[in-house]
Amino acid sequence: MDELAAAHRAMGKGSLPAGDAYTIEVRRRYAAHVDDVWDALTSPERLHRWLRPVTGDLRLGGKFELDGGEHGEILQCEPPRLLKVSWLYGPEADAWPGTSEVEVRLAPGPTGDTEFELIHAAVLEEPLFPTYGPGAGGVGWDLALLALARLLADGKTANHDEVHKSPEVREFIRRSAAAWGEAHLAAGVEPDHVAAAVEATTKFYAPDAP
C-alpha cells in the first residue's frame, strides 16, 4: 500500500496522430539510480521480470511485442531520459495506428534516486474508456509499477500467473481503482459515472475483491 501511495495520478488531454486523446499520468520517485531504472525499462532480461517477456527489434524505429499481446513501435529513445512507444493490443489494433502511445520520462533525483513519469495517451474513441474510465489502463500500470518497485528494491521477479490470487494484491487493485476514480473526478466527470467506472474496473481486475 505504500507503493500505491507513492504515486501521483492524473487524467488529462492530449493529441495523437489519429486524433484527440485522453491521458493517464503517473508520477513517482524510485530509490534507484537513473541508469538502473532505464536498464529495467529497456533490457529484455529485466523487462520480463516486472512487465512481460518482450521480443522484436528493440531500437529506435523497431517493433516490439510483449507475450500478453501488447505491441508497437519504438518512436523515441533518448537514454537514459526518454522512451516513447506506440502501444497497441491484439492483431486487430494494427488497423488503427496512432491511437495509443506510452511515454516514460526519467530525471535524476537530488539524492541519487530517480523521478519517474509515465503518460499513456489513447484516442477518445477507445472502446474501454466509457465503461472503465482511466482505470482501464491505470490499474494495469499501477500493478506493473509495483512489480518494478520490487525489482529495483530487492531484485524480486513478479509472478504474473499468481499475483491476482493474493488477498493483498486484490486489495491493492481495489484501492488503485478508487485512486483512478479520484483522478477521474478531478477531471470534472460526473460522480455517478465515476462510481460506475470504479466498480467496473475493480470487477474486471479482481472479480472476487471485497
From TrEMBL:
<dbReference type="InterPro" id="IPR023393">
    <property type="entry name" value="START-like_dom_sf"/>
</dbReference>
<dbReference type="Pfam" id="PF08327">
    <property type="entry name" value="AHSA1"/>
</dbReference>
<comment type="similarity">
    <text>Belongs to the AHA1 family.</text>
</comment>
<dbReference type="InterPro" id="IPR013538">
    <property type="entry name" value="ASHA1/2-like_C"/>
</dbReference>
<protein>
    <recommendedName>
        <fullName>Activator of Hsp90 ATPase homologue 1/2-like C-terminal domain-containing protein</fullName>
    </recommendedName>
</protein>
<feature type="domain" description="Activator of Hsp90 ATPase homologue 1/2-like C-terminal">
    <location>
        <begin position="32"/>
        <end position="151"/>
    </location>
</feature>
